[in-house]
Amino acid sequence: MTDLSAFRAAVAARAAAGLPAPAGLADSVGLVAPAGLADSVGLVTPAGLAAPAGLAALAREAGVRTAVLLEGPSDLAAVEALAGRLGRELAAEGVCAVAMGGAMSAGPFAALLGPSGLGLRLTGLCDEHEQGFYRRGFDRAGAFGDEFFVCAADLEEEFIRALGVPRIEQVLAAAGDLPAWRTFARQPAQRDRSPQQRLRRFLGTRKGRKIRYGRLLAEALDPDRLPPPLHALFHHL
Fold it and tell me: Per the database record, which ranges form the OLD protein-like TOPRIM domain (predicted)?
């Protein structure tokens, strides 16, 4: 199995620092590439600066051809779990899913990974109200023909709609969170909300819960009845 952790770490470090990369980034992750590698594969940033040869070398070693830009770690957990549910080995297919730490980072990540950077094919998944960040980021990176897919309103709502409250309560019970969910749902502040709205809020009330249930709810999905944006994403990959 291909290990993409070093590539993801290097991408996150450079995107967080902005373009161009901080001096020594390639050395910091132990990446050494032949002189001129960046030029040989046409890696040029919007500012005309060669992309780090070490990062390019790592992408080549891992066979990465497509980058899936995801808003956060809960989305990454869901996509990786669903890939397993569908029998897909994304790394072997040349696909690397990346958690950006928020949709506002779509611009730097697209610039680094897309046509203006490493030259990877771009795609992604985002919340409905964040799609503008993706569209602008893709366009500025020159990825005009690359598609991303939009959840209504977010991935948690897509899961709730696809699975339904009773099935999600089964998942909560298996994970030991059913008592906490029932206590939360009885709170006065939740009385005027629908069960679906309560569930969506519950999933975001504790640190780490969205990541955990990103994986668990993805694993609970019927592969033949995926939420539309997830179906479209995996069909596109």
Answer: 65-127
